[in-house]
Amino acid sequence: xxxxxxxxxxxATGLTTLSIALGVGLFAAIGSLREASQDGFERSASxxxxxxxxxxxxxxxxxxSLYHIGQSPGLLTFEAYEQAAAQPxxxxxxxxxxxxxxxxxxIVGTTSAFFEDLRLAPDDTPLRxxxxxxxxxxxxxxxxxxxxxxxxxxxxxAVLGAEAADYTGLALGSTFIxxxxxxxxxxxxxxxxxxxxxxxxxxxxxxxLDRGIYISAxxxxxxxxxxxxxxxxxxxxxxxxxxxxxxxxxxINARLDAQAAxxxxxxxxxxxxxxxxxxxxxxxxxxVIVVALLGTLVAIYNTMGARRKExxxxxxxxxxxxxxxxxxxxxxxxxxxxxxxxxxxxxxLLAWSLGGWLQNEYxxxxxxxxxxxxxxxxxxxxxxxxxxxxxxxxxxxxxEATRHLSGMGFGFAAAVLLLPLGLGACSEGQSNYGSAAxxxxxxxxxxxxxxxxxxxxxxxxxxxxxxSEAPQGAYKTLVGTILAHEGTAADPFPxxxxxxxxxxxxxxxxxxxxxxxxxxxPKHVRFVDGAKVRMVGFMLPDVAFEDIxxxxxxxxxxxxxxGAPPRxxxxxxxxxxxxxxxxxxxxxxxxxxxxRLTFEMEDGIVxxxxxxxxxxxxxxxxxxxxxxxxxxxxxxxAFQGAVPIPTAAPPNGGEIGY
Length: 658
Hints:
The chain is of the alpha+beta class. The strands form 5 sheets. Strands 1, 3, 4, 7, 8, 9, 10, 11, 13 and 14 form a 10-stranded mixed beta sheet that branches. The chain has a 5-stranded mixed beta barrel with strand order 16-17-18-22-19. It has a two-stranded antiparallel sheet with strand order 2-12. Strand 3 and strand 4 form a beta hairpin.
């Protein structure tokens, strides 16, 4: 029913849902991207413990050395490099030389230790080659450069990161000319003397290492203009943890010509700055969600005036106030929930798109993963949507049936108002069958069989006529009709409303207490408990009109809603088989299944006494015939405006709903 109500307002529902989806999508995407990008940056920062370079900004040093972003603060002297590498507890030291590029990808001069010693978090994975081999350039050769040894013309060989190979189009065996510029622009000086051959390509690591073009440090210094510089861009250090790490960091920073930056610390500092922007954007997203939820409240509240008659009918048909409350809150929660789901899907799409851009631009592979954050966002939005629906729900809760049914016709208004009285106050109702209804036979086995033809068993009026002519005999004949059958699926008992209603339910029949039960059912009714029965009747108009799984079966549509309302023992609660359902119909229904007798009370109101569990294929729709209605009674016209027009019955009757 909630789905049907929302589908009646597709534009308002769609726009409100879209607004919530945009807010949730923005909020979730910001959080997801921030967490994933921080994880990606920290994963790249973990390849070393310290980055040593010239004095300047430590964050600039880290971003230039590890992420290929920005400029180097300056050159580090060979003396500072050698003293940093000689610090106690230093496990390895890898020189980094930058200043050249090819097609927008930086050329990095280094040694063989770069490929041998670097490890990637979180599994301490070494760098691996997808193709070819790495160049050979030992630390000893690099140290010799400081002494003036620059003759390495045979070392113009390169190993490419996976992304650099894809971006530049270089392959194993390709030759390229480096440019003396970090961007590799058209105006940059070309190192024509340093034609470099690709001898290896690294496997993808999901870090900025994928964007580099790596050559040997001796070859780097062999290029024109580099030989006289006598310095390094940075040094990557791995230290033993604890005391040695702190000691190396302090002693290097105590120098006037060098600094040691901690990559993990600098990345946290970076994201603490970015986090301020994240918080502002998240606040904007929350405001969008709040405005959308307020829009949900207003949209539903604006429909209250037009729906008051609908609520009045539901109240008059017996729906408690909490049902109306649940209905409106459910609509609001459904809009919020659908918007939240669409928003989370939008966030995933946005994170995937921006993640690809971030990897292309900076080499940071981010992997947004659904987790507890998304689950709690969904729950919070649904809860907020439910709270937003409380305002219109309370308006529906206060709906009075008598005030809003005046425009629906006196007959229908009176019928729906009297119907709950017939259900809940059945002790005040009187049996239509006189004293015979309260008389029980001494023994069912002593009762005679009926001569009523089996093909006439369901036609109304036969048993009613017998009772009116001879109450005692009719009662025995009525029970005898039951005994003429076996109560099995092949031969069900022909039970009708005369049989079920031929006794008066009174307050005194209720159980004395929970531990002192009293059977309120007479013997002739208790006799059919659990047996297979057949019944004919009509579907009582209820709250739902589509895909109905449970409904009340009544003797007459006229009697249920325009005549005397049925008493509680003249109603049968019908339960269709699992996964079966039918739409509302005015036509006569023939049902077969198991009859169950129950006695339950809720809030002082007696619930259904009879339950009929329909067998598969045990429901047939017949042509409309209501002998209890006056001549000319047309249910379609009588219920117009309150009950939707049903589909036509199958020709000559037929199974429906399955």
